[in-house]
């Protein structure tokens, strides 16, 4: 009896240790998501000077990165079907390393198009990785604690976003780059462009080591589900258009990702516009990420015990309007602080929009989920619209683009998610 008990305890301890190792691996992957994604906030002002770009042109950084989510969506599915989820994640990390590798010839020739190609390939690899890693958050531990693990992964992602601009900023020496703004000294600009090579070599090494770690790890394989959703569509029993709330949910997610990317990726450039030097402004992204982490923690405590997810979305949308208007009508540090606070406004939107959009869709859950993932392309289009307005107006007035977008999110939280086809 005692021997059996000892064996059970040993097995339980082994399973717990395996789950812990798996969670650490997944946490590392979410960290690398955030590091690569939110590094764009630093690249926008850096490449604007190094490649002699207009404000509008500089926001093709976000376009190239996020449009990959739409272009690579079919490729992601095929890659994971062919390699499996675990090996597929290693492949995705390798693809991201190839994208980072392109930064070397891009810097040496100071060619913006090659930088954008590198960003697109990194975004494509990340799209595959995102598709593969999310199921693991659920299966590496008890189902009843999955929500807690999702929140932990979100915090890993945002912590990386807080660290990335500060760490890479040490290599780029943005305080010296500020002096070169508007210069036509080709030698000085060439020297500035080369500063990006050492940190990206480091990123390549980390990505390849992580790919090897995942490949050698004991992560369980995710079994493919039956394609019942596709069958349901073919039989004509239900169509996505039969669920207006789901279609509106995709639009809302598209908008949310767009305003989130604006809040994070414009703040350094906007801080410079408000008179701060590069060395100070590079830390502003950390403020936005810190506000998002606070929002995550509040959500863990408050939802659904104290507030429903649709009500949390209402509050977030209202805060988005208030903080945006506050940024427009103030100046200096106060205006930048309002942009940083948009991190708080955006923090609970992703976890609220998904369940509202997926409610009652039944066998079309996978089809709607695929559309929601493609909605991440909002990060490609909406910041580009901000960049265009910044050219016509100025970088402060251009934030007006976010006000109607937050109002649409508010509409979805109040009424849009309730619409069903008669």
From TrEMBL:
Record-stated family: Belongs to the major facilitator superfamily. FHS transporter (TC 2.A.1.7) family.
GO BP annotations listed: D-glucose transmembrane transport
Domain of life the protein comes from: Bacteria
Membrane topology (UniProt): Multi-pass membrane protein
Locations listed in the record: Cell inner membrane
Pfam family, one: MFS_1
Protein name: Glucose/galactose transporter
Primary location group: membrane
PANTHER family documented for this protein: L-FUCOSE-PROTON SYMPORTER, N-ACETYL GLUCOSAMINE TRANSPORTER NAGP
Keywords in alphabetical order: Cell membrane, Membrane, Transmembrane, Transmembrane helix
GO-annotated molecular function: D-glucose transmembrane transporter activity; galactose transmembrane transporter activity
GO cellular component: plasma membrane
Biological role stated in the UniProt entry: Intake of glucose and galactose.
Transmembrane segments: 23-44, 56-76, 88-106, 112-129, 150-172, 192-215, 243-264, 284-303, 315-333, 339-359, 371-390, 396-414
């Amino acid at each position: 009896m005692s021997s059996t008990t000892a064996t059970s305890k040993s097995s339980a301890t082994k399973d717990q240790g395996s789950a812990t190792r798996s969670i650490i691996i997944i946490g590392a992957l979410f960290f690398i998501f955030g590091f690569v994604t939110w590094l764009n906030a630093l690249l926008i002002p850096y490449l604007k000077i190094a490649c002699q770009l207009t404000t509008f042109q500089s926001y093709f950084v976000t376009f190239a990165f996020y449009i990959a989510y739409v272009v690579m969506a079919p490729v992601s599915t095929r890659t994971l079907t062919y390699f499996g989820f675990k090996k597929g994640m290693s492949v995705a990390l390798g693809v991201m390393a190839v994208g980072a590798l392109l930064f070397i010839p891009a810097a040496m020739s100071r060619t913006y198009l090659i930088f954008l190609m590198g960003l697109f390939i990194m975004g494509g690899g990340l799209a595959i990785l995102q598709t593969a890693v999310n199921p693991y958050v659920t299966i590496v531990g008890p189902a009843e604690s999955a929500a807690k693990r999702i929140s932990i992964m979100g915090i890993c992602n945002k912590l990386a976003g807080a660290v990335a601009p500060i760490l890479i900023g040490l290599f780029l020496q943005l305080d010296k780059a500020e002096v070169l703004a508007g210069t036509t000294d080709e030698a000085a600009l060439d020297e500035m462009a080369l500063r990006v090579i050492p940190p990206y070599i480091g990123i390549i090494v980390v990505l390849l080591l992580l790919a090897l770690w995942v490949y050698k790890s004991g992560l369980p394989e995710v079994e493919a589900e039956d394609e019942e959703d596709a069958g349901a569509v073919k039989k004509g029993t239900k169509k996505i258009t039969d669920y207006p709330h789901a279609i509106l949910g995709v639009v809302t997610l598209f908008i949310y990702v767009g305003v989130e990317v604006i809040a994070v990726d414009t703040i350094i450039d906007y801080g410079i516009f408000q008179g701060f030097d590069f060395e100070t402004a590079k830390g502003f992204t950390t403020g936005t990420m810190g506000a998002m982490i606070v929002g995550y923690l509040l959500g863990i405590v408050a939802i659904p015990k104290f507030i429903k997810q649709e009500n949390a979305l209402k509050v977030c949308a209202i805060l988005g309007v208030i903080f945006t208007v506050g940024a427009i009508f103030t100046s200096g540090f106060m205006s930048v602080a309002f942009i940083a606070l948009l991190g708080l406004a955006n923090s609970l939107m992703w976890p609220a929009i998904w369940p509202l959009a997926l409610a009652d869709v039944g066998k079309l859950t996978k089809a709607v989920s695929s559309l929601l993932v493609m909605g991440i392309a909002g990060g490609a289009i909406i910041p580009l619209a901000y960049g265009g307005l910044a050219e016509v107006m100025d970088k402060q007035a251009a934030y007006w683009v976010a006000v109607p977008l937050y109002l649409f999110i508010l509409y979805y939280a109040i009424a849009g998610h309730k619409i069903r086809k008669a």
